[in-house]
Design a protein that fits this description.
0% of the residues lie in helices and 49% in strands. With 89 residues, the chain is mainly beta.
Length: 89
């Protein structure tokens, strides 16, 4: 994760041919974030918030779909339901 990001220990990793993706639950703020590595060494990454607040995103998992985009599943703490948004970039 980029410098300054605090990970709560709940994270998912996915490795594709040319893409590495990390999904993390950030304990402060209760955010689910995803980081997509810019290179094979993952020396830099672009980070996006998937779910902001609400204690959603713990117990997450990530995979890379056939289209090369990450698919993230996660549990919401308030409803104990699972969700799976699909990235568009």
């Amino acid at each position: 994760m980029p410098s300054g990001e605090v990970v709560d220990g709940n994270f998912g990793l996915a490795f594709g041919d040319d893409r590495k993706v990390i999904a993390t639950f950030k304990g402060t703020g209760n955010d689910l974030k995803v980081a997509q590595c810019a290179d094979q060494g993952c020396t830099s990454a672009s980070t996006s918030t998937v779910v902001n607040g609400g204690n959603q995103g713990n117990l997450n998992s990530v995979l890379i779909g056939a289209d090369g985009l990450p698919i993230i599943s996660y549990r919401t703490a308030t409803t104990t339901a699972f969700s799976w948004p699909t990235a568009t970039t």
